[in-house]
Write a structure and sequence with these properties.
Largest sheet: 6 strands, mixed
Strand content: 15-25%
Strand order of the largest sheet: 2-1-3-5-4-6
Shape: globular
Radius of gyration: 16 Å
Distance between the termini: 28 Å
Order of helices and strands: HEHEEEEHHHE
Structural class: alpha/beta
Number of strands: 6
Number of helices: 5
Length: about 190
């Protein structure tokens, strides 16, 4: 499990940067002699995720346990979220707009076919964090998505996926576009 350390002035700087951006994703603070760089905060709104809200929260927690450069947090009341999460009857998909921003759909079609809701949530959030699908792929790869089969319930990113997200957010400016531009990722 990764532990984030904030000390004195660094913690204050992070709080000021979040309040100045109105809860929007802010660029990571560079590492100083006081400690490591602060995680870039990306907020999400799972109020439209219906029966999948707890799976979305668990998927976000898994990313928070797995990487240091970005932290997914539920949006505060009255704030605009970076990520909207919605439930619908289609197939799960992500519509990233810029790195750390977009919309995720947790589609009931995949759930009805037997796919794990926490794996779906973590996978779709991975797209918003800049990861592409890696199909076909083994169950050990979160971004292999549905190609790993319904028996795969692994919701954790592998070492390469973690490293890619760390690279995407390590000092990345807020609003940086995804590598391949805006796209719809249907899994």
């Amino acid at each position: 499990m990764h532990v984030r350390m904030l000390t004195g002035g660094l913690a204050a700087a992070c709080l000021v940067s979040v309040s100045l951006t109105g809860g929007q994703a802010a660029a990571a603070t560079p590492a100083t002699a006081d400690g490591p760089a602060a995680a870039r905060v990306v907020t999400y709104d799972a109020s439209g995720a219906a029966e999948f809200k707890s799976a979305v929260n668990r998927g976000a927690a898994i990313w928070n346990e797995s990487v240091d450069a970005v932290e997914l947090r539920p949006v505060a009341a009255g704030q605009r979220a970076n990520i909207r999460v919605l439930a619908d009857n289609g197939w799960p998909r992500a519509l990233p707009t810029t790195l750390g921003n977009g919309t995720v759909y947790i589609g009931r079609q995949a759930v009805d076919q037997g796919y794990d809701t926490i794996r779906i949530s973590a996978h779709e959030l991975g797209h918003i964090l800049g990861l592409p699908d890696r199909k076909p792929g083994p169950c050990s790869s979160l971004m292999s998505g549905s190609s790993a089969g319904t028996s795969c319930t692994n919701p954790y990113p592998n070492a390469a996926e973690k490293a890619e997200v760390e690279g995407n957010f390590g000092g990345a400016p807020a609003g940086r576009a995804p590598v391949a531009g805006t796209r719809v990722i249907v899994d």
